[in-house]
Structure formats: C-alpha cells, structure tokens
Amino acid sequence: TEQFWLDTRIPLSNDLADWREFSEADKDVVAKVFGGLTLLDTLQSQDGVAALKKDIRTQQEEAVFNNIEFMESVHAKSYSSIFSTLNTPKEIEEIFAWTDSNEILQYKAQKINDIYQNGTPLQKKVASVFLETFLF
C-alpha cells in the first residue's frame, strides 16, 4: 500500500511559482516528457493490461493486473491534472500535437502495441516490463 497514491492528494498549484521561474526551454522539455508519459501510460492502461489479462491463469494474477490497470489510469489522469494546472489549453493542444507527430514516440508505442495485439503471453509480459522501465 505504500506505493498507492492518487493525483488528488498532491496540490499541484503549490508548484506554480516554481514553474513560472522555469525558462521556456525547460518548460518545453517538461511538457514533452509528460506528453510522452501520457501516451505510454494511456497505451498501457487501455490496451496493454487488457492484452495481459487475456492470459491470466489465477485469481491472484487477475487481482495484480486489475491493480496495475487502475494505477495506470491514475497516472494518465495525473498527467492531465499537471497539464491543466501548468499549461494553457493552447499549450496542451501543442504538446499532444507534438506527441502525436513524434516519430520516435509513435514508433515505440506502435511496436509495443503490436506485441500486445499479436505476441505470445511471454512477449506481452516482456513488452509491458520494457514499457514500464527503459522505454519511459
């Protein structure tokens, strides 16, 4: 339970003063990082966990995957909260336009999703671990 958290428990508005001190270049980097994280967490919560759940063999596995699915959704929602606190609607639109057109991010997401849709149970698990670790 120590790893359990909700985005609503973190007062993001407390960071606004610090955010305003960032250079435009730093703000751009942070925004793009969160855009990429949003893309990958959304893939994991909407497609990845569903693909992994198709291969469940025990109730314990199901419970673990249900928790992972919930937490991935919380993570994606937390990025949305960060965007709406720190960025204007126009900036948010630009961030997601960049994410949608970034060839490297899209390549990673497409490769992982292809494994989720067509891979063996072991390949899906490996893809999930990759997505949650060094592909981030």
Automatic annotation (TrEMBL):
<dbReference type="GO" id="GO:0004748">
    <property type="term" value="F:ribonucleoside-diphosphate reductase activity, thioredoxin disulfide as acceptor"/>
</dbReference>
<protein>
    <recommendedName>
        <fullName>ribonucleoside-diphosphate reductase</fullName>
        <ecNumber>1.17.4.1</ecNumber>
    </recommendedName>
</protein>
<dbReference type="InterPro" id="IPR000358">
    <property type="entry name" value="RNR_small_fam"/>
</dbReference>
<comment type="similarity">
    <text>Belongs to the ribonucleoside diphosphate reductase small chain family.</text>
</comment>
<dbReference type="Pfam" id="PF00268">
    <property type="entry name" value="Ribonuc_red_sm"/>
</dbReference>
<dbReference type="InterPro" id="IPR033909">
    <property type="entry name" value="RNR_small"/>
</dbReference>
<dbReference type="InterPro" id="IPR009078">
    <property type="entry name" value="Ferritin-like_SF"/>
</dbReference>
<dbReference type="InterPro" id="IPR012348">
    <property type="entry name" value="RNR-like"/>
</dbReference>
<dbReference type="GO" id="GO:0009263">
    <property type="term" value="P:deoxyribonucleotide biosynthetic process"/>
</dbReference>
<keyword id="KW-0560">Oxidoreductase</keyword>
